[in-house]
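Why predict the complex rather than its parts? Because the way molecules touch one another can change local conformation, and only a joint prediction can capture that. The input here totals 230 residues.
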Amino acid sequence: QVQMQESGPGLVKPSGTLSLTCTVSGGSISDYHWGWIRQSPQKGLEWIGSVNSSGRDNYNPSLKSRVTISLETSMNQFSLKLSSVTAADTAVYFCARVSYDFWTGDYYYYMDVWGKGTTVSVSS
Amino acid sequence: DIQMTQSPSALSASVGDRVTITCRASQNIGNYLNWYQQKPGTAPKLLIYAASSVQRGVPSRFSGSRSGTYFTLTISSLQPEDFATYYCQQSFSTLYSFGQGTKLEI
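Output of the joint prediction:
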């Protein structure tokens, strides 16, 4: 059974870089897509972006200039870096596996395995 | 961007009730719609994908349907463990977006 766990600092200073790692156990990171989602009372659930097993990434345009998501295949991990953070980036950050079904000629994507989430606060 | 609008925002119901939650997409998204359940302090849990496919391990009392740009999550007979917040999410666009959530309360 695949499990995922986020790790990283819980407090980041304004203008700094938020760095989180998601460790995947019970399955290979060489399959599927892998994504980051955050949740705050102000914005609800917000898609940050994803990376596929080939390293191809896809980001939320509103965050694209500040975000990098990358695979670390040898460690079975993937990471999130968000630069120039402000208080608006304070949220619970989740990593998730993006699976798909190929059905009637189309790919249907969904997030079927999630980490427990980690709270990141941006404050001096 | 595709906007997802859920209704109602909150709903009170009793054990054994049949409950329906609606999600409307701002444009045609086909069947690219997923439903999640979230309990306080935990991550969302996938219930339904591709509008009507029930995820393995999810009880059969959960079902999903689509009519145009309107999607419905139905719980046929509420159980105590079903009181939670429910979210829809579209995957038609690579910019995934979520509804604002429907809180189901006792």
